[in-house]
Design brief:
By secondary structure, the chain is α+β, with helices and mostly antiparallel strands. Helices cover 50% and strands 23% of the residues. It has helices at residues 2-8, 35-44, 57-66, 90-105, 109-131, and strands at 14-17, 20-32, 75-88. The protein has a three-stranded antiparallel β-sheet. It is elongated and about 80 Å long. The two termini are 18 Å apart.
Amino acid sequence: MRDVLLSRLGPEQEQHGRFGTVRRTTREYRQPKDTATVFDALDDHGIPRDWVLGVDQDKLEIVLAVTALDEDEVYDRDEQVYIQKTGVEEEEKYARLERLAERIEELDGDKREELREDLRDLEARLDEALSA
């Protein structure tokens, strides 16, 4: 479903449906470049290596905040685009579930029990998927 939604939504665009709203969002991850590259960048800017010895990311953040060092010189970036649920229509969701429950109760005994068993199986699969 992720790929379908990503293909339909532009940057920061939202899609509202019966049960809620989703938004296309971008998240960026940064990882320090290899140690030699980071030390070369520090040397180029006259920043003592011991300020970030061992390339501690917290120390590196402080150096970036107080010097002219550009983060592109010490970080590799990886951007990830994903779908984020931004709202849920609780009333609509519960109304639909209530209607389904009522319709199941209208069925004969064997059919009703068969559907209840299917729902229990589905709940177990959902629990398993969410706990993984």
